[in-house]
């Protein structure tokens, strides 16, 4: 039977914890990692009522988008809803797992689901992250007698399998140059090439690959397993390049341009919202930027992207001025922009596990905002 730890590994393969923002607290919030899963209940927010629903429906895991423990807890007395939620979960052996900004910042996550609901095409990351990539350089023998085994190909295949060599939508990417390596094996060594205490000169290939930093341990493990040398020379260099597939928000194209009023009707219809707060804008809407949740921090990026509209939630009064007449800034609500995130979790879990347990979307309403229209 899959365990809570198996679930965490599966979700973190899709949305690595390394991609969460510094203020966030994604991951396993409470519960026994070794507990076998009897059922999973998916929700945007975990509350005492959600925990009660999980127990009622035979689920011992709640997967939420928003972490219930967001700030450090100093006590567990049930004095507020957060403490009440954790106490209820612990009493009923219910584990709580959250994937928050790490799921916001990956393709296939929150924003891709929002883009899907709005019918956006040709999507790309609105604000790519920097500092998430590294370059690995290593050296392998390049001798004529080794050509049948293709040592470079063997090492590269292992690195690719461990997560290296991906550049955007291109896989198995590497660079190689020819050179000469020198070394003298010391006492007690078992060199793959050469003899102890004798200087050796070897034709070598310098191999270079990119890797996401969160795959560093796995890639170096693969390097050590596949490399022919007893002592492996390598360099791992952190890069400031932006990762085009990791970051906040998306920008894409509508199938056809819409008048601003028509676009707002599309938002209401597709996102099931009665009200859209927006700035004045008279030009047709074709290019659309989006960010699920509180995305006012990306208003400038949306303008710079050339978007005609930017759709997000939690925009404050003064932040609406940030549109500067260059786009229509649309606030559809925090919950409303993320309400389909449960579908992302459901698809990941049903594809990643054999159907030995139920994966259910919570029926408990958790949106604290109500509308009178």
Could you characterize what this model shows?
- The structure is a single chain.
- With 373 residues, this protein is an alpha/beta fold.
- Helix content is 27%, strand content 28%.
- It contains eleven helices and 15 strands.
- The strands form three sheets. A six-stranded mixed sheet has the order 5-10-12-13-14-11.
- α2 links the parallel β2 and β3.
- α1 packs across α11, α2 runs parallel beside α3 and α6 packs antiparallel against α7.
- The protein is globular, with a radius of gyration of 25 Å.
- The mean pLDDT is 95.
Which spans have pLDDT < 50 for at least 5 consecutive residues?
none
* N-to-C SSE string, H for helix and E for strand: HEEHEHEHHEEHEEHEEHEEHEEHHE
3D shape: globular
User: What's the tally of helices?
Assistant: 11
Strand tally: 15
N- and C-termini, Cα separation: 48 Å
**Averaging pLDDT over every residue, what do you get?**
95
Q: What class do helices, strands and sheet pairing give?
A: alpha/beta
The residue fraction in helices comes out at 25-40%
The biggest sheet, with number of strands, parallel, antiparallel or mixed sense and barrel status, is: 6 strands, mixed
Compute the gyration radius: what is it?
Answer: 25 Å
Order of adjacent strands in the largest pleated sheet: 5-10-12-13-14-11
Kindly estimate the percentage of residues that lie in beta strands according to DSSP: 25-35%
């Amino acid at each position: 039977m899959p365990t809570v730890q198996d679930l965490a590994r599966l979700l973190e393969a899709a949305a690595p914890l390394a991609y969460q923002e510094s203020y966030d607290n994604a991951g396993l919030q409470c519960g026994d990692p070794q507990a076998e899963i009897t059922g999973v209940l998916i929700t945007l927010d975990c509350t005492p009522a959600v925990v009660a629903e999980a127990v009622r429906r035979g689920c011992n895991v709640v997967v939420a988008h928003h972490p219930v423990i967001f700030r450090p807890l100093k006590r567990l007395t049930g004095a507020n809803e957060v403490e009440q939620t954790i106490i209820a979960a612990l009493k009923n052996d219910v584990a709580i797992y959250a994937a928050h900004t790490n799921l916001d910042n990956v393709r296939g996550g929150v924003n891709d689901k929002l883009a899907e609901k709005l019918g956006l095409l040709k999507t790309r990351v609105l604000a790519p992250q920097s500092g998430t990539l590294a370059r690995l350089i290593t050296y392998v023998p390049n001798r004529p007698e080794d050509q049948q085994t293709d040592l470079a190909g063997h090492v590269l295949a292992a690195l690719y399998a461990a997560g290296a060599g991906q550049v955007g939508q291109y896989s198995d990417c590497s660079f190689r140059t020819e050179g000469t390596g020198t070394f003298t094996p010391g006492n007690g060594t078992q060199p793959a090439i050469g003899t102890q205490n004798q200087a050796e000169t070897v034709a070598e290939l310098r191999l270079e690959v990119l890797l996401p930093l969160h795959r560093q341990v796995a890639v170096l493990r693969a390097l050590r397993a596949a490399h022919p040398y007893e002592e492996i020379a390598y360099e791992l260099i952190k890069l400031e390049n932006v990762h085009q597939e990791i970051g906040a928000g998306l920008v894409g194209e509508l199938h056809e341009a819409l008048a601003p009023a028509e676009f707002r009707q599309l938002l209401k219809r597709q996102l099931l919202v009665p009200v859209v707060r927006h700035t004045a804008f008279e030009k047709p809407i074709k290019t659309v930027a989006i960010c699920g949740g509180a995305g006012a921090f990306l208003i400038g990026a949306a303008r710079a992207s050339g978007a005609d509209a930017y759709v997000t939630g939690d925009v404050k009064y003064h932040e609406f001025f940030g549109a500067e007449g260059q786009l229509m800034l649309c606030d559809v609500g925090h919950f409303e922009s993320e309400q389909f995130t449960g579908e992302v979790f459901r698809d990941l879990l049903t594809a990643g596990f054999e159907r030995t347990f139920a994966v259910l979307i919570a029926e408990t309403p958790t949106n604290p905002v109500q509308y009178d229209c």
